[in-house]
């Protein structure tokens, strides 16, 4: 007589939605028995951190914080590059030390706690400091936050690879994104009903305190994941081993193509701010417009997360292709509208709708590439893939972030077209990637 399912197992079965949800592909038997609990714990921790990200969004919230403390204007341009690249570039060295650890969830917990402390510090800076001192303090704390995020990135993919079977990893990312998108909808709706004029440093400080608390709770949840010891070979001198590991880009053709494809598909993220700028150029900067963009972002995550997640578990390669083509076609259409029907850009709903579609596409790129790299390798090779690709992508992201300088020679729609064409090239290269679901 089989034992009755627990609530955790029932929820897991409903979310995974497979005939044999417990079928464990690419993990050992001991880990297989713990899959339902580990799936739900990882899902909850990812949801909490993604919600924290939404409350400290470097494209929307942190610029408001800098503005509220009267920080110098030149600091605004540092937010997104530091937030994204700072977590990627050091990963090649970090991974060499992580490789020595048979149990790696503690690295994720440490990274989450450090992120919480960084966000708390940003909140205190917004509340107590002003001007350049406040601005540079926030930038320094954001750097610490981003470096701490790198710890989580290296550890999480390896822990997922040991605890969650293939064909379920994409759904894990999809459901957490969807749940965070639901909360973001509420935040956008609140903004839509308020012009935000009464918000001051104390309010932003409290908002950051709430966001930081989410990372602390996530660390507590993740600490309960039942991880089993893994490979520890290759944990030598961090920097020297990191330099040797870069040779993967020369010797491993499928991995090299993946990194190149991922670099071209960065355009799905880099294009987003220009959609907002194009809307502001034609409609100004009313509060309702900002609320519409936040609602569009939240709705896109809510709707598309589970779809892309299940699609990625069938073929993460095809997810990359479809979502990149979607990004490219949308950008080309926006360029055509700006060139031939520019009056349409004054329609208040057009650019938020375009941003909604772009966010759906970007979710596909993000979930597709995360699932692909986890499925592409096993053991410490997976850690190498994650760390090398993230370090290289971090450097490329900093360089591609300079596309804003093109504003001196072309208009915003032209930059959107250029980035969209690069993304289309990424879709073409993804056609040559091997499948990983075998």
UniProtKB/TrEMBL annotation:
Family matches, as InterPro entries: MFS, MFS_trans_sf, Sugar_transport-like
Pfam families the record matches: MFS_1
Gene3D superfamilies: MFS general substrate transporter like domains
Transmembrane segments: 61-82, 107-127, 133-152, 172-192, 204-222, 259-276, 288-308, 320-340, 346-365, 385-406, 412-433
UniProt keyword annotations, A-Z: Membrane, Transmembrane, Transmembrane helix
Entry GO MF terms: transmembrane transporter activity
Protein name: MFS transporter
Native source organism of the sequence: Marinobacterium mangrovicola
Taxonomic lineage of the native organism: Bacteria, Pseudomonadati, Pseudomonadota, Gammaproteobacteria, Oceanospirillales
């Amino acid at each position: 007589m089989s034992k009755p399912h627990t609530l955790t197992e029932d929820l897991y079965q409903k979310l995974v939605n497979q005939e044999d949800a417990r079928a464990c592909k690419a993990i050992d038997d001991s880990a297989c028995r713990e899959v339902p609990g580990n799936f739900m714990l990882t899902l909850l921790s990812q949801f909490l951190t993604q919600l924290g990200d939404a409350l400290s969004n470097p494209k929307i919230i942190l610029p408001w914080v800098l503005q509220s403390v009267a920080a110098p204007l030149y600091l605004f341009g540092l937010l997104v590059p530091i937030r994204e690249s700072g977590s990627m570039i050091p990963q090649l060295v970090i991974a060499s030390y992580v490789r020595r650890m048979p149990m790696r969830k503690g690295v994720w917990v440490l990274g989450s706690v450090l992120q919480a402390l960084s966000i708390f510090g940003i909140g205190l800076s917004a509340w107590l400091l002003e001007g350049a001192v406040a601005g540079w303090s926030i930038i320094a704390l954001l750097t610490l936050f981003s470096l701490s995020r790198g710890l989580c990135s290296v550890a999480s993919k390896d822990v997922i690879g040991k605890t969650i079977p293939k064909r379920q990893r994409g759904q894990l990312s999809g459901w957490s994104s969807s749940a965070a998108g639901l909360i973001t909808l509420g935040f956008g709706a609140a903004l839509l009903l308020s012009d935000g004029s009464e918000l001051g440093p104390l309010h932003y400080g409290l908002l950051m305190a709430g966001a930081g608390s989410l990372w602390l709770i996530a660390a507590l949840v993740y600490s309960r994941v039942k991880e089993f010891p893994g490979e520890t070979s290759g944990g030598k001198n961090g920097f020297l081993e990191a330099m040797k590991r870069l040779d993967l880009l020369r010797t491993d053709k499928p991995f090299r193509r993946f990194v190149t494809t991922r670099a071209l598909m960065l355009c799905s993220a880099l294009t987003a701010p220009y959609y907002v700028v194009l809307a502001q150029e034609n409609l100004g900067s009313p509060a309702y417009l900002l609320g519409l963009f936040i609602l569009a972002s939240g709705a896109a995550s809510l709707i598309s997360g589970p779809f892309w997640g299940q699609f990625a578990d069938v073929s993460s390669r095809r997810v990359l292709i479809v979502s990149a083509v979607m990004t490219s076609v949308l950008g080309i259409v926006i360029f055509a509208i700006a060139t031939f029907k520019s009056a349409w850009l004054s329609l208040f709903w057009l650019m938020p709708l375009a941003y909604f579609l772009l966010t759906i596409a970007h979710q596909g790129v993000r979930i597709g590439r995360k699932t692909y790299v986890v499925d592409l390798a096993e053991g410490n090779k997976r850690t190498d893939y994650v760390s090398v690709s993230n370090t290289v992508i971090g450097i490329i992201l900093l360089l591609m972030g300079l596309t804003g300088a093109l504003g001196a020679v072309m208009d915003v729609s032209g930059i959107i077209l250029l980035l969209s064409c690069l993304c289309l090239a990424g879709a073409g290269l993804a056609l040559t990637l091997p499948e990983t679901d075998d």
